[in-house]
């Protein structure tokens, strides 16, 4: 995207427009920084990971601040992706140890989790969201569109808490009992819960409100 000129600048681009880059330039800058660890702000990436659990709105306020200062919603630093990949590697190795997997099986699982579950799915989702610029924009404009990189960042932000819960905390609760059989029977009641959920939506029944009323009138 070429910089535009301000009517009051005698043909010179404004500072905001001069700082604006094309999507290709932004992508090249992001990928190039993957090769230079010293240029990555890992401290800030750790801060984002912490607040994705405790105060997610602060992370998204930072995206808004980046849009105002750098004219882009997406991260321009791949430090978050690098740390997330390291987390995936560590958690996958933990899975391999807990489940008594072989070295090659663990490596295959690691490659699958990192490059398919995380990056591959993220690329697919980001591309679908990027296509929305063509079909879903209310008023098409260069200044108001979905950035491909921002869609990818949203995927990473959502993937990280799920990673910690399922790939890290869950490891401490995996306790197989080899002397039991047909343990899948214990999961059957969840099918009933799913049916109740569908019925509550179709009937307009607020289960949470009903539960609150139950506790309130039980003690009266």
TrEMBL record:
<feature type="compositionally biased region" description="Polar residues">
    <location>
        <begin position="1"/>
        <end position="12"/>
    </location>
</feature>
<feature type="transmembrane region" description="Helical">
    <location>
        <begin position="80"/>
        <end position="103"/>
    </location>
</feature>
<dbReference type="Pfam" id="PF05216">
    <property type="entry name" value="UNC-50"/>
</dbReference>
<keyword id="KW-0812">Transmembrane</keyword>
<keyword id="KW-0472">Membrane</keyword>
<protein>
    <submittedName>
        <fullName>Protein unc-50</fullName>
    </submittedName>
</protein>
<dbReference type="InterPro" id="IPR007881">
    <property type="entry name" value="UNC-50"/>
</dbReference>
<feature type="transmembrane region" description="Helical">
    <location>
        <begin position="109"/>
        <end position="131"/>
    </location>
</feature>
<comment type="similarity">
    <text>Belongs to the unc-50 family.</text>
</comment>
<feature type="transmembrane region" description="Helical">
    <location>
        <begin position="152"/>
        <end position="174"/>
    </location>
</feature>
<feature type="region of interest" description="Disordered">
    <location>
        <begin position="1"/>
        <end position="21"/>
    </location>
</feature>
<keyword id="KW-1133">Transmembrane helix</keyword>
<comment type="function">
    <text>Involved in the cell surface expression of neuronal nicotinic receptors. Binds RNA.</text>
</comment>
<feature type="transmembrane region" description="Helical">
    <location>
        <begin position="186"/>
        <end position="208"/>
    </location>
</feature>
């Amino acid at each position: 995207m070429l910089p535009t000129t301000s009517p009051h600048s005698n043909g010179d681009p404004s500072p905001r427009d001069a700082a604006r880059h094309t999507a290709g330039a932004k992508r090249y800058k992001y990928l190039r920084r993957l090769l230079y660890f010293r240029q990555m702000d890992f401290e800030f990436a750790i801060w984002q990971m912490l607040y994705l659990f405790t105060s997610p709105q602060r992370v998204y306020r930072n995206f808004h601040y980046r849009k105002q200062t750098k004219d882009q919603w997406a991260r321009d630093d791949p430090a978050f992706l690098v740390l997330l990949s390291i987390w995936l590697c560590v958690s996958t190795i933990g899975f391999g140890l807990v489940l008594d997997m072989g070295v090659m099986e663990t490596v295959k699982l690691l490659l699958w989790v990192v490059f398919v579950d995380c990056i591959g799915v993220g690329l697919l989702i980001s591309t679908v969201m990027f296509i929305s610029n063509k079909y879903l924009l209310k008023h098409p404009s260069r200044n108001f569109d979905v950035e491909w990189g921002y869609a990818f960042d949203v995927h990473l932000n959502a993937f990280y808490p799920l990673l910690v819960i399922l790939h890290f905390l869950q490891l401490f609760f995996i306790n197989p009992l080899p002397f039991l059989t047909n343990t899948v029977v214990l999961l059957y009641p969840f099918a009933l819960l799913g049916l109740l959920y569908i019925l509550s939506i179709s009937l307009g029944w607020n289960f949470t409100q009903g539960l609150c009323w139950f506790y309130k009138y039980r003690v009266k």
